[in-house]
Design goal:
The complex is a heterodimer of chains A (about 110) and B (about 120). Chain A has no helices and eleven strands. With about 110 residues, chain A is mainly β. In chain B, strand 7 and strand 8 form a beta hairpin. The chains are: A mainly beta (about 110), B mainly beta (about 120). At the A-B interface, strand 4 and strand 5 of A face strand 5, strand 9 and strand 10 of B.
């Protein structure tokens, strides 16, 4: 059974700092990995999707990497801003069957002005 | 940008009552998902539809939960009777997935926050 773990559970940084969020998964047989952002009481916003054949994806100040063989992904946020404060969720799509995503519990990020 | 619509945003109900949630996916998206997210946890899939057919409902508590997508467009999730442990955020998502090894991102709605008292 695929399991996704995100460390740390919470992170607090000063504005302007570069930071890395970590995600690990137990089964490397995945189609893709997706990073989401969730603001309090809201739904999920897709940030980046990395296909299993890719090593990284970039969008603005965000860069996500994928090392499928070791079961790890990182989300790098450059020059963090208070508006980046949110919970960041990692999800993998296991191979086979339906397009079901398996989520981690998320990392709650606070960027202090 | 097109969005997944959900209603209501909030619902408070007493245990043993019936509740229903509605979702309208992005136009043209064949696949619709209902996820449940308990506070502090990641979302877990309850049911997945492709058009009007159920693809995966292995985690749906079928003794009290039901879901339908009669015309392959919007969907309703029902709980009867509600229990205290059902308090959670219920998220609907849609994607263009139609089977196979595609890489279609999921688009989520803002969810329905259910509180059972």
């Amino acid at each position: 059974k695929q399991e996704v773990t995100q460390i740390p559970a919470a992170l607090s940084v000063p504005e302007g700092e570069n930071l890395v969020l970590n995600c690990s998964f137990t089964d490397s047989a995945i189609y893709n990995l997706q990073w989401f952002r969730q603001d309090p009481g809201k739904g999920l916003t897709s940030l980046l999707l990395i296909q299993s054949s890719q090593r990284e994806q970039t969008s603005g100040r965000l860069n996500a990497s994928l090392d499928k063989s070791s079961g790890r992904s990182t989300l790098y946020i450059a020059a963090s801003q208070p508006g980046d404060s949110a919970t960041y969720l990692c999800a993998v799509r296991p191979q086979g069957g339906s397009e079901k995503l398996v989520f981690g519990k998320g990392t709650k990020l606070t960027v202090n002005p | 940008e097109a969005e997944v619509a959900q209603s209501p945003r909030y619902k408070i109900t007493e245990k043993s009552q019936a509740v229903a949630f509605w979702c309208d996916p992005i136009s043209g998206h064949a696949t619709l998902y209902w996820y449940r997210q308990i506070l502090g946890q990641g979302p877990e899939l309850l049911v997945q539809f492709q058009d009007e057919s159920v693809v995966d409902d292995s985690q749906l508590p079928k003794d009290r939960f039901s879901a339908e997508r009669l015309k392959g467009v919007d969907s309703t999730l029902k709980i009867q009777p509600a229990e205290l442990g059902d308090s959670a955020m219920y998220l609907c998502a849609s994607s263009q997935w139609t089977g196979g090894s595609t890489n279609s991102p999921l688009h989520f709605g803002n969810g329905t926050r259910l509180t059972v008292t």
